[in-house]
Amino acid sequence: MPESPYLGEVTVIASVYVPKYAVPCEGQLMPISQYQALFSIIGTTYGGDGRSTFAVPDFRGATPVGVNSTSSYNPARGQFRPGQMGGRETQVLTTDNMPSHNHIIKTTSNVGEDKSPSNGLLATTDCRYPANVYNTAATSAQTLSDKSISKSGLGNPIPIVTHSLCMQFGLWVIGSYPPRT
Description:
Layout lengths: L9 E4 L8 E3 L4 E3 L4 H7 L10 E3 L34 E2 L15 E5 L10 E3 L33 E2 L8 E5 L9
Parallel strand pairs: 6-7
Antiparallel strand pairs: 1-9, 2-9, 3-4, 5-8
């Protein structure tokens, strides 16, 4: 723990509480009138109206990301502005973001019993000679039974949170005013 933390410094703490002179980083609004020096450092970067309130950073369920040092910001490339939120905890896969993959078409070695492809699986024939079972004419295309192709997934969101360790973040509201470099 720093002997004399800077005002506005965020500290990661292993305890379940934040020390005296620090507040938990939970996005709460703070009165400017009571924390004018702190407001002069972080302003409304994390929220608040800038007239009577400002917000502290909210690290609940969030991962800190370094600030991009250039003036161009592109969240898709991991470039964020100070205070900008990004990412999400879950993602639903759609055909647009799903990796290329194949499905297995189910068939049976049993002899076919039905002439309609919408009622069952591809089957062998009882013909003496190999039968023509494929047709390239698009006008004769039929939908196969949903039993013919293996199902994939339920459409539920998947968690995308990286392996994590939950820690307490505290923002120092009393401390030395940080000098500019």
